[in-house]
Design brief:
Structural class: alpha+beta
Strand order of the largest sheet: 1-8-3-6
Helix content: 10-25%
Largest sheet: 4 strands, antiparallel
Shape: elongated
């Protein structure tokens, strides 16, 4: 009987001790990040593209919680061509390439999205963004890249069908950062 009473007192003491240690609140922060490549190729430039840009996500309110973020959820990734023009108005050009995604410190993309025969004119004229469809495993990689560096590095590799050409390729990421803080 004495052992049972001691075990009960010990169990209650442990419950009291550890119940105050878990006062963490889950905070969800939604963030939309606009990332952009500017392509401006003159008539004598090669048609090949090899661009890389790093983008910081932990800005504004997210900056305050950057050390408490436990995970990211990617809600959507999409792209849109803006400010497209060639030497001849109304002339189209196409993009064949890969949009790569990595951690900010990554040297090479770990996730790739292929764009084949993308009409720059049609994408420019379309008012909507185009969804980037990635398999679940690739989305998980992107979420891990965000967690590792609070940002992403994007790569645009490929070629355009003709020069001169000018356009901006905008990539928009809608994410939720989940932080835990007392």
């Amino acid at each position: 009987m004495k052992n049972t009473a001691q075990m009960a007192i010990s169990a209650i003491a442990l419950l009291i001790l550890f119940s105050g240690c878990n006062d963490l609140k889950e905070i969800k922060l939604d963030k939309t990040v606009n990332m952009e490549f500017t392509v401006d190729l003159g008539p004598d430039d090669p048609t090949a593209l090899d661009l890389t840009e790093a983008f910081e996500f932990a800005t504004g309110e997210l900056y305050e919680y950057r050390d408490y973020i436990k995970r990211y959820e990617v809600k959507s990734l999409r792209y849109k061509v803006w400010e497209f023009y060639t030497e001849t108005p109304g002339e189209d050009a196409t993009l064949d390439g890969i949009l790569g995604i990595a951690s900010v410190s990554g040297a090479d993309p770990g996730v790739e999205f292929t764009m084949t025969g993308l009409s720059l004119l049609a994408s420019n004229d379309n008012p909507s963004h185009t969804e980037i469809e990635l398999p679940a495993a690739d989305l998980e990689k992107v979420e891990q890249y965000l967690l590792n560096s609070n940002g992403l590095k994007l790569f645009l590799n490929g070629s355009v069908s003709s020069v001169p050409v000018h356009f901006k390729l905008q990539v928009v990421a809608d994410v939720t950062a989940i932080a835990e803080k007392e």
